[in-house]
User: Which sequence fits this backbone?
């Protein structure tokens, strides 16, 4: 749907004519994320460079009832950044500066368009560490990470994005600017409104600045990949290692994942033996004693029958190669049009939960290839079903969608989440009731109306009003 000429002229006046795009290529490029479930169809893309410009766009949206969709690195997997209904996309690509470093507090004040890897490199240059990390770190933006409360591969040690956000400046759906928490570690002055915007997917307002906490850099990281005969053994390995070592990561993936990654990305197998599942764990080898403890744990797991074979990195190059076995999965399976589920339950429930889900998958998808991987150390499982070559995309997605009810009923039975780290957006919106009670949803909708009474901020995402 073309944007009205008078509204287009007012957007030009706010951000400059050269920073509003309406050509087809731009609409397609900035109107989507990594999902393929909805075709992008925005009416315009705007590129603000300041808080005042964002505020001007939001106030215009309220005046003329214009729907806005935030756009960062567009690496999301829930269609939260998809503009499919003629919305105006607000891209933060130009708001990409690191504004201030406060060394005494280990704080970085930055704009939302800063790329995750850029913040990681900035921290490293100062002998510090930004630990939120995932495969899309090279293109995802901090504003999007905050909007989805991104997780990734280090959650077992460092937590989700919300653990690292000490201050937010936001433009609410009403067009007000709020400066929330201002970087303080301790602030007991009532409601912490900052937390509502973390994970809010841009439905309450847009993040225009953030104050991000940094940590000390980890020392002498070692990576182990262990092959296990079954999934239950993965959990036993986790318990054994976590009891004695302070793990910075604990991931798992299946043999099919390994076959695909080694084939498509040229990554060598970790060892000759092929096992049904693999555990990848990482820890700080701060002394020879820690390394010896890790090797003793490995040998104990072999004796118990929980581990068939394994390898430990001896240098950073080997560590990066071993990590590619896990981090290369998402990119590799994207060539197969996967249907993704991002689930989580308490670690206590994981063995029984995955057995139940495996039963559903075997019953409903007997001819489909299923790729399991995930951040098992924090209870997060990624279930990926690969489209057969001889099946059309629409038929495939319809088949997968028809089984979601059984999968999410199982999630609800274990008190889990239908979206551990990918957000709700459009793809998980129909299933939100499996993780949130009717009373919770009513409160969430009421909060939305307080901050965004005209429903201009990413409307239709998370839930419908």
Assistant:
């Amino acid at each position: 749907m073309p944007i009205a000429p008078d509204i287009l002229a007012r957007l030009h006046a706010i951000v400059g004519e050269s920073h509003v795009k309406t050509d087809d290529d731009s609409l397609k490029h900035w109107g989507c994320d990594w999902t393929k479930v909805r075709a992008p169809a925005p009416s315009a893309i705007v590129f603000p460079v300041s808080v005042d410009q964002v505020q001007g766009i939001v106030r215009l949206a309220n005046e003329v009832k214009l729907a806005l969709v935030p756009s960062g690195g567009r690496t999301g997997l829930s269609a939260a950044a998809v503009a499919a209904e003629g919305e105006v996309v607000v891209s933060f690509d130009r708001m990409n500066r690191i504004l201030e470093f406060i060394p005494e507090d280990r704080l970085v004040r930055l704009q939302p368009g800063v790329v995750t890897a850029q913040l990681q490199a900035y921290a490293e240059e100062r002998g510090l560490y930004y630990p939120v990390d995932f495969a899309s770190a090279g293109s995802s933006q901090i504003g999007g990470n905050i909007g989805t409360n991104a997780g990734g591969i280090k959650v077992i040690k460092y937590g989700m994005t919300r653990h690292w956000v000490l201050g937010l400046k936001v433009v609410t759906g009403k067009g007000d600017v709020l400066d929330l928490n201002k970087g303080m570690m301790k602030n007991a002055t009532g409601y912490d409104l900052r937390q509502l915007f973390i994970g809010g997917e841009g439905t309450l307002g847009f993040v225009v600045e953030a104050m991000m906490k940094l940590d000390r850099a980890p020392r002498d990281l070692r990576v182990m990949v262990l092959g296990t005969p079954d999934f239950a053994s993965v959990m036993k390995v986790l318990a054994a290692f976590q009891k004695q070592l302070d793990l910075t990561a604990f991931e798992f993936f299946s043999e099919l994942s390994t076959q695909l990654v080694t084939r498509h990305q040229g990554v060598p197998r970790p060892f000759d033996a092929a096992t049904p599942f693999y555990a990848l764990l990482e820890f700080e080898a701060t002394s020879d004693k820690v390394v010896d403890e890790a090797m003793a744990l490995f040998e104990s797991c072999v004796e118990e029958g929980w581990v068939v074979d394994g390898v430990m990195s001896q240098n950073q190059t080997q560590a990066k190669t071993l990590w590619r076995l896990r981090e290369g999965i998402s990119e590799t399976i994207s060539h197969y049009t996967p249907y993704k589920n991002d689930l989580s339950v308490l670690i206590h429930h994981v063995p029984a939960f995955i057995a139940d889900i495996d039963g559903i998958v075997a019953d409903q998808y007997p001819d489909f290839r299923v790729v399991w991987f995930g951040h098992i150390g924090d209870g997060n499982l990624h279930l990926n079903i690969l489209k057969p070559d001889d099946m059309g995309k629409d038929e495939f997605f319809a088949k997968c969608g028809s089984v979601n009810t059984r999968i999410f009923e199982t999630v609800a039975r274990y008190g889990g989440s239908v979206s551990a780290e990918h957000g709700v957006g459009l793809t998980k919106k129909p299933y939100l009731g499996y993780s949130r009670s009717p009373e919770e949803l009513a409160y969430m909708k009421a909060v939305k109306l307080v901050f965004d009474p005209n429903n201009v901020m990413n409307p239709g995402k998370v839930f419908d009003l």
Q: What stands out?
A: The longest helix spans residues 393-413. The chain has a mean pLDDT of 95. The chain has four domains: 5-91, 98-216, 221-330, 337-438. The radius of gyration is 23 Å.
